[in-house]
From TrEMBL:
Residues 174-292 form the GFO/IDH/MocA-like oxidoreductase domain. Gene3D superfamilies: Dihydrodipicolinate Reductase, domain 2, NAD(P)-binding Rossmann-like Domain. Residues 40-163 form the Gfo/Idh/MocA-like oxidoreductase N-terminal domain. InterPro entries: Gfo/Idh/MocA-like_OxRdtase_N, Gfo/Idh/MocA_domain, GFO_IDH_MocA-like_dom, Glc-Fru_OxRdtase_bac, NAD(P)-bd_dom_sf. Pfam families: GFO_IDH_MocA, GFO_IDH_MocA_C3. It comes from Arenibacter algicola. This is Glucose--fructose oxidoreductase. It is an enzyme of class 1 (oxidoreductase).
Amino acid sequence: MGSRRDFLEKLSVSAISLPILYSPAKLFAAPSEPYEGPVLRVAIMGLGGYATRVAKAMESCKRAKLVGLISGTPSKVVDWRAKYDIPEKNCYNYENFDKIKNNADIDVVYVITPNGLHKDQVIRVAKAGKHVICEKPMGINAKEGQEMVDACKKANVKLLVGYRMHYEPKTVEVIRMRQNGEFGKLKFFQGLSGFAIGDPTQWRLNKELAGGGAMMDIGIYSINGARYMLGEEPIWVTAQETKTDPVKFKEGVDETIQFQMGFPSGAVASCLSTYAMRHLDRFFLNGEKGYAEMQPSTGYGPIEGRTHKGELTQPHITHQTLQMDGMAQLIFEGVQPIVPVDGEEGLKDLKIIDAIYEAVKTGKKVDL
């Protein structure tokens, strides 16, 4: 990434329209140097398990800071305020958070709530004049996603999606190798994304709140991974669903879906999304000149992988720390990650998810 960034900087005089690319290596190369630039002031909406992870990761950020809370549970607000020294004036509930419009101390709201709530919450934040980071999937279908993109454009605020892997160093290195042609003509991608889900009463197994099942929560990693590993957009999908527990996985909540995607170059992807199998977190990319394999490929802990050139040795940095610092750079300086994290990127994944569900329902190949 560093050489690519340097190359772009050298071209800046003759090609000033080219975007500056984010480099995790440069961002964290000299931790002893104090950072004196702008700090992105973040309010988190939804104080659940993943929000806890994001908040902890932000303690190590240079460019982003947790300054506000939005929650429907007063006791959580009390605990979080004490832990992160959040002023009372920066705390809201789901009924009154529109008032952030009048709070100059908040720049962006990170929406980390159930999928089915994203659209309305994101649009309300946009109308309040604040930038939005929305956890993925951005919405429960492409129609919702388009409404969210349109609302943020109308309000002239940025809509970003929590694609932490777009900042992860080993992932960035594989994408860089692909961009440089080191795998040759790409032929095949495999993505396996799944775990055995627990509590049957949780919102992820509620059609209204989740918008589906495993595909919305974990299958999206293989969809997005296929796109950034191959560097193309799929032109067709086919899919097959397997359901072994119709009590736990009710109508409209998928347990396991195998899906295939075809790409303009002729490359194909074969993927599995499931809530019923353990130890599934693997990407494999095959090209005429080489390969890349990553396992784990998207988990929170250190990503592990190798290519035909050897082990991937980039250092592990907490993904959400990189993500939030990277998004601060994007908002303040226009520094783009190697793969976009904007609303249009989120919308592309939602269109593919819609097509996969249609393929499951019809048994037919669906063109995109």
